[in-house]
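In response to a reviewer's request, we include the raw inputs and outputs for one of the modeled complexes. The four entities were modeled together in a single run.
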Amino acid sequence: MIDKKSGIPLYIQLKDEILNKIDNDIWDIDSQIPTEMELMNKYKIGRATVRQALSILVNEGYLYKKHGIGTFVAGKKPSLGFEPLISLTFSLKQRGITPINFIDKKEIIAIEGHLLKEFRLTKKQDVLYLRRIIYDGNLPLAIEDSYFNKSIIEGEKELDLEGSIAEILLHDLKLNITKVEQIIVPRKADEEERKILKTAGTDKVLELKRWLYIDENEDPYFYLKFVIPSNI
Amino acid sequence: MIDKKSGIPLYIQLKDEILNKIDNDIWDIDSQIPTEMELMNKYKIGRATVRQALSILVNEGYLYKKHGIGTFVAGKKPSLGFEPLISLTFSLKQRGITPINFIDKKEIIAIEGHLLKEFRLTKKQDVLYLRRIIYDGNLPLAIEDSYFNKSIIEGEKELDLEGSIAEILLHDLKLNITKVEQIIVPRKADEEERKILKTAGTDKVLELKRWLYIDENEDPYFYLKFVIPSNI
DNA sequence: AAGTGGTCTAGACCACAAC
DNA sequence: TTGTGGTCTAGACCACTTT
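The model returned the following structure tokens for the whole complex.
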């Protein structure tokens, strides 16, 4: 309960009240919690106070909101080994975001010459190049350039290239990943990136490059680069 | 300037306006920015709107407030976007786990000879070695070996080495991280690891190594290795 | 005492999703 | 149409720091 005379700010008391119900599993994961209106009436407090409490919990990842629907308990999902470490889609879903991947480019290109170093390849190779823009609704979240070993398009399977790439690699292709290398560098967005990502206010982005090795191969099977505004 | 008819929320416009002045160094570090009252009058907006814009920037580490005095530009620019990408504690907390870090070893060691390559160092260096076992309650989750540049123990600050290391690096030390390299390799646990982690059923683990670079330094500031059972 | 940020209320209108 | 969260205003009083 909330005590208006305790001296403790009401929004702190409400925040703790809600946190307890989450921690003690009184509210199920992904279940809707009382609306702002209901919380106002139940505790006889103003809407701004309710929203201040909720915004803290959203910020800390305990709750997520859906505009026009309600407020929900954020879920802890089971892990699949590598998945949380290599999948952007996975990380976003954990925060209540269901990303949409829009395929911008899809073509076969040859990696040779000075490009070999960037791709960490030892010899010339044709790869499937895929550029996707990842959205949360209408909001662009990231630009993703991925390069697959050509063998991926030679299989008979129909691959869902708009889904999670980590899922394709781990579940559909059942690859035996033996090493993942990754570099993250914060930098300024270039002009194209600013245009696509509509970076407002700041033009700082994180650039992440990732190389995936399978079996005992010396060359990576998969190369990924993605750029994401650093305020996401 | 702020356009009330643009359709863009006023607090977003104000936030971006302020962010630009910070990014372009129009306001010095630790200098006071206009008071909430001044911002209200200047842009003809309500106080709640001003506070909403400011609270975002405080939350993201661009500003800090002093009660009864004013609002100020934060000293270092945050690399907060890094947190989910580099912090094990952060990732675990997102899944509802509040890990406990038990310090197993803590000593100064010299990195030289053949070890230099593993640490990606170019010359001999003394480092602070920290081994921690990370628990979820009684269940051991991971073994973590971290190696800090010696300068970390020369500061006057008392560092909470049982908390999140990413938090120390980003929030306490406010390091300007310029690159993160990481390798993940699945392998079999060795005998010591099996003993500590009590790996049940499977003895497969993920080994993650991570190198953190700050400023323009050629050598990494921080080296981390952790081993985690692959069924977690 | 004056000025700052901290908390809180009541009320309004908008945007989005579901029925 | 209804109910949700999103944005915004005007106003009040409190707590803290400096003058």
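As requested, we also summarize the result in words. Residues 80 and 197 of chain B are 31 Å apart (CA to CA). The longest strand of chain B covers residues 100-111.
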